[in-house]
Amino acid sequence: MVFAILEINESTELLPNITLGFKLFDSCYNEVLSLMGAKWILSGKKNGVPNYNCNKDHMPLAIVGDMPSKASVPLARILGLNRYPQVSYASGQPLLSDKIQFPSFLRTTYNVDYEWSAIAQLVKYFNWTWVGMIYSDNDLGISGAQLLTREIEKSGGCIAFQETLSISSSMKFIYRIIDVIKKSRATVIVLFCTIESLVSLMEEISFCNITDKVWVGTSGWSITSDFPRIEILTTLNGSLGIAPKNGNIPGFKEFLHSIHPSIFSNDPYMKTFWENAFHCVWPGNDAYNNLSQTLLKNGSDWCTGKERLDSIDVNIYDVYNFKYTYNVHNAVFALAYALHQMKNCVPGKGPFKNGACADAPNHQPWQLLHYIKKVVFNNTAGEPIYFDENGDGLIAVDILNWQLFPNGSNQYVHIGSFDARSPKGQELNIWLKKILWNGQHTHVPVSVCSHPCPKGYRRAALQGQKICCFDCLPCSEGEILNPNDDTECLKCPEDKWPDSRKEKCLPKLMQFLSYEDSLGYALACISILFCLFTFSVFCLFLVKQKTPIVKANNRELSYLLLISLMFGFMCSLLFIGRPNQIICMIRQVMFAVIFSLCVSAILAKTITVIMIFSATNPDSKLKKLVGLRIPIYIVPGCTIIQIILCSVWLTTAAPFAEFNMAAEIGIIVIECNEGSRVLFACVLGYMGLLAAISLSVAFLARKLPDTFNETKFITFSMLVFASVWVTFIPAYLSTKGKQTVAVEIFAILSSSAGFLVCIFSPKCYIILLHPEMNSKQYITGRNTRKQRI
């Protein structure tokens, strides 16, 4: 304040030829002393008389102060009665913005409601969802705690505990608060306390060695130097604080370094300051003679006056961080600019009735108040200064980090800022790399009731607990965590499936038996190999077509059976690859018709054997049927019936390709739906009927005296066929996805291979390895021997 008035008095542009003076009074954080000081300043006497002014020349223009809100409120109520200007540099209580109750109160600081917003955003920024709170038992603390609670809960956080602290709190009450702090899982504790009520609590906390907490403070105490013990500073190490924006006051640092008791000889505090700063005794300091004698006894020397203030540790004599100092400087300049505008008022163009101006030397308090409210100017640092409609200053705060170093030094480090004028969501700026938590370069402390749920787990509220305390339950199969609400899971669409972390739904994998699969590739190779092997047998039979073993039992039926088997092996390839409408319609029909043709050819061969031996038996009743050539009609007749069934199936309820979402978890199986299950069962049932008839006839004819045991081989082949398809049914029903198709292909290949091996391998063995048995003489001779026997 002294520096600002000296600047104004030396200015040739601001209030030229006018010298400002001042009176100082220390209210010591006390409302009563604050009112006494105001009475002394206004009345002109230390023991003032009500309604009596002892000022010889002029009454003071305005009062700058007070610092604590509790002192400014009663002062503002009294000064407001006469509209006497009051400009505070630190009182931030929201109530003071009410211009009906406090019409003459203005401040170069901000409404502390914005501090609650800054702290709420700070808590949200560090993801602290479980926060303790201690607040003073006054209007500022109670209203601040309510606002902060609302803001934290709005952003999803919770208040772990709330404790009220008053100046008159007993030690029993303080011990109870400390016990709550120890038991709480909250790592972060917000303090809405004034310094005078906080000192005793922090002393006891330091005695208890509670150093694992992060204390978040408001401007009411966070930048104070009133904590008397180093243990308290150790406890507060790593804490965060809100403070008014640090300002720039050009020339002020040099001014602070230049002060000297010889320059301010009338200042009662100057000599004492010098003694404390340099641990020496100033000669003639009568006001503090006892202190001087104590210093001399402790070995201190006399002050020489040549000590340099710029050599003092910045932690003791800080000439760089101007917070409330900056606000005081702006308050004095605001009064000076208002007085300057009032002095330069042009009669007839003034702001009062009929364009009148105020009489500057003898103005009324309300007239100067009018100018102060509307003052707009740039301070010496070039920053704009003005008051809003509520008489509040600019809304900008600094975020500080208290850091204590191993050598015992300490400092507040500017680690961020909060500017309410910035766009929404951009008000808070933090520089994480500058923060020291508990004096160490560690990660951001965690303060939660329950740790966040892992990916794919939802929050389940605990009965009787706050929302920040919860259990984690996994989302069910096919569900993901709701990105907008972590308390519920969302079911994925049918064609999608959650990813491994259950964060989003991904398209399901398309599955079918393809040639790229090792299983599909192996089955395709087996099918082709068996088809080639069957073709080689067919070629061998063509080459040896005139030999007895080929001519036996109807050569044409053998050719037809071999061709059918080749198609049977090849039709299994229709089951490999991505199904579509045409493939689904063809593959089951081809399979049914080809196997019906095979089984009916075997049935015809069996009946041929029976009729041949019936013809040689004079007593056989079947001898008359030999000339009808019944086996020739069995194959087309039986096959046509199957073709008719398949035609009805295709025209009424044909198979079609479909996406099976439920066959396997997380997979879409592309498969063929058989359409009408009844008709599909009829087709398979008819084929089973043919197989049963063939097996029965072959079994009854197995002991006929055939040279090459044809009926026995047919019986074995039909037994293999029946065994394969009987075991196929449960295997088919118990598999899912592409394994179902693989089972059916395996059944087709196994039954076809059974026909090929059981019926034709004995013939190939004789043709290739024992050609002497494939002769008319061998057959004739063997039959002669049988007849003799």
TrEMBL record:
The keyword Metal-binding does not apply. The keyword Transmembrane applies. GO terms for molecular function: G protein-coupled receptor activity. It comes from the Eukaryota. Signal peptide: none annotated. This is Extracellular calcium-sensing receptor-like. One of its GO terms (cellular component) is plasma membrane. Keywords: Cell membrane, G-protein coupled receptor, Glycoprotein, Membrane, Receptor, Signal, Transducer, Transmembrane, Transmembrane helix. The chain crosses the membrane at residues 519-543, 559-577, 589-614, 626-650, 678-701, 713-733, 745-768. The gene is LOC121397319. InterPro entries: ANF_lig-bd_rcpt, GPCR_3, GPCR_3_9-Cys_dom, GPCR_3_9-Cys_sf, GPCR_3_C, GPCR_3_Ca_sens_rcpt-rel, GPCR_3_CS, GPCR_3_vmron_rcpt_2. It is found in: Cell membrane. Pfam families: 7tm_3, ANF_receptor, NCD3G. Residues 519-783 form the G-protein coupled receptors family 3 profile domain.
